[in-house]
Amino acid sequence: MDTIGEIARTIKAARAAKGLSQRALAKIAGVPQSHISKIENAGVDLRVSSLTEISRALDLELALVPRKTVPAVKSIVRSVQSDIPSLTSLALNDDLAKLEKIADEIAERFSSVKEAAQLQSRVHDLTRFAMPESYLGNIRKLQKELDRVNKQPDLKGLIASLDSVQELRNALAHSPAKELRRVSRSAYSLEDDDG
Q1: Considering Cα of 40, then 45, then 47, then 52, what sign does the dihedral take?
Q2: Axis crossing angle, helix 33-40 with helix 48-57, rounded to the nearest 10
């Protein structure tokens, strides 16, 4: 097992998950950016002090555990990581938010056209579905389509976009449950669940 390579991959993935550049991580951890780059590429032996500072900056913890307990620790880490949204999932959430914003702009710009209001409503409905990560490409394609309609007003384009949104909605409605991801809910929406 390549321990340094594994540590390097973990650091790089954690940095990316936090949305930090190497430069930003270097500033937070107090380690030169060039050193972060070398560490992420497994091109340098790590000093414990550097690893400790980088880990803390990424909300990670270093621990020495007995070898016999490593499988249990890895299992626990995997189960916790499965509850953390992936980068694709985060990108999907961002793209859905952008899609909603464009639909809102179209509805505002074409307030007298009923199809614009329908488009806005259907795009907002999309966000209520548990969206499979495999739909990221579909969302981005739809985003470009709506962007064109928003920049170059065209009723035919608007109607075509409305049809595209409806097709995506129907595909989501009929997706097998195993493809669907859990919908993230804000913490504040759970506060009043006590009754």
Answers
A1: positive
A2: 90
Buried b (16+ CB within 10 A) or exposed e, 72-106: eeeeeeeeeeeeeeeeebeebeebbeebbebbebb
What predicted TM-score, i.e. pTM, was given to this entire model? 0.48
Query: Hey, what are 86's tokens?
Result: 């992936």
Tokens 């995506």 appear where? Answer: 168
Return d(Cα 114, Cα 67) in angstroms, integer. Answer: 65
pLDDT in tens, 59-117: 788 888 888 988 888 888 777 766 555 555 667 778 888 889 999 999 988 888 898 89
How far is Cα 160 from Cα 110, in angstroms, rounded to an integer? Answer: 15
Structure tokens at 37: 């780059």
